[in-house]
Amino acid sequence: xxxxxxxxxxxxxxxxxxxxxxxxxxxxxxxxxxxxxxxxxxxxxxxxxxxxxxxxxxxxxxxxxxxxxxxxxxxxxxxxxxxxxxxxxxxxxxxxxxxxxxxxxxxxxxxxxxxxxxxxxxxxxxxxxxxxxxxxxxxxxxxxxxxxxxxxxxxxxxxxxxxxxxxxxxxxxxxxxxxxxxxxxxxxxxxxxxxxxxxxxxxxxxxxxxxxxxxxxxxxxxxxxxxxxxxxxxxxxxxxxxxxxxxxxxxxxxxxxxxxxxxxxxxxxxxxxxxxxxxxxxxxxxxxxxxxxxxxxxxxxxxxxxxxxxxxxxxxxxxxxxxxxxxxxxxxxxxxxxxxxxxxxxxxxxxxxxxxxxxxxxxxxxxxxxxxxxxxxxxxxxxxxxxxxxxxxxxxxxxxxxxxxxxxxxxxxxxxxxxxxxxxxxxxxxxxxxxxxxxxxxxxxxxxxxxxxxxxxxxxxxxxxxxxxxxxxxxxxxxxxxxxxxxxxxxxxxxxxxxxxxxxxxxxxxxxx
Length: 513
What we know:
This protein has helices at about 5-110, 135-145, 160-170, 175-185, 200-210, 230-260, 265-275, 300-305, 305-330, 335-360, 375-405, 410-420, 440-455, 460-510, and strands at about 120-125, 155-160, 190-195, 220-225, 285-290. It is mostly helical. It folds into 3 domains: about 75-110; about 115-290, abc type-2 transporter like fold, CATH 3.40.1710; about 300-510, no CATH class. Helix 2 (about 135-145) links the parallel strand 1 (about 120-125) and strand 2 (about 155-160). The longest helix is centred in the first third of the chain and has 109 residues, at about 5-110. It is elongated. The N and C termini lie far apart (about 105 Å).
């Protein structure tokens, strides 16, 4: 082979090798460029997925925090709500307890340590025996009733100067006994004791001759009038006097009967035991009731409890008509409404008082004892005035309560009943001075007037009682425009506050949206 050919062949091999290497390198470069392009394309996709995951994690964390905050907010709102409810109940019960204590205290307080007020009950004592050698009955009477256990403890017993009292009786052309009964009838005293002239001498003569027809228990008289106060007389006055009577009889038998028996001869003593033993148990009081309760317990249902019903009905007169009043007030002028309001109330009291009196007749309780055939009209007038006086007070207070705090209306009804009934449940003189307010209450004055109608008690104070009732009615109706204006003003203020609250709530809603 030619050497040139061999060299040429080697040169060709080298060249071919170089060319192949270049192609390989170029292929590698192209592959690398391809890979780099793929990397560039895939890198943003990877970064976007990682950022998405991060966003998902952040949003989930935000949602969890929102849930926690909403739960905390809900708990706060619930705790506020429960606290408001608890506070409402506490305030409600506090108001109830205070009102309940006030109502109970008024009635229970009138009964508290009542015995200390027995001294306010005054009695007149007329010892008309005169100047005799041994007025034993009068002496014993003075010893018993002036003792520290009786005088100014169980009552105040006023012993008259018999000379002055006789002069007073003669001026009025009365006997001493008649003057005593007149003093009691005029309500100057709750009762009176009368020892007649020659009481001891008459008793001694009856012992001497054994006079069985002589009644020693008629010597000492206790005069009173149940009609003055049908609740106080049987419950307090009579039990007090009966208690003193027992002590007096025991004392009198020792110091009167035994002393007089010692002056009798043996024959007179034997005749006394055989013919008139009743003379030995002497000196019980003779009770003279000049205005007895002939009606029985029903009179209490009419005069005392009946006025309680009148009070309740006077309240319901307004309560039942309140919805009608609210409708009419929108359709007529204020002056017209005021006239309408007053007239409707008075007509209601007029009709209800008539029904009250018809019920009295239905139970066959006579109304003619004091005023004859006019008794029905007089009773009707008294009940009407009492109901109207009670009603105007109920109306004023009810208007204010319904406008401000309705739940206490029941306490007002029961409280006003207690305020009025307490002062007629017994004499005001047997209560603390605080209860002197009762002299001005409608129920007390109506009660006193009804006692005059049914028992023919002293009429001298009728004008005062009627005047007080009329004063309640007139003043109450004159003040009614002020109460109506005040209630209307209060309602407007509440409406304005409610409108402001609504606007604030709506503004908050708009801001949230």
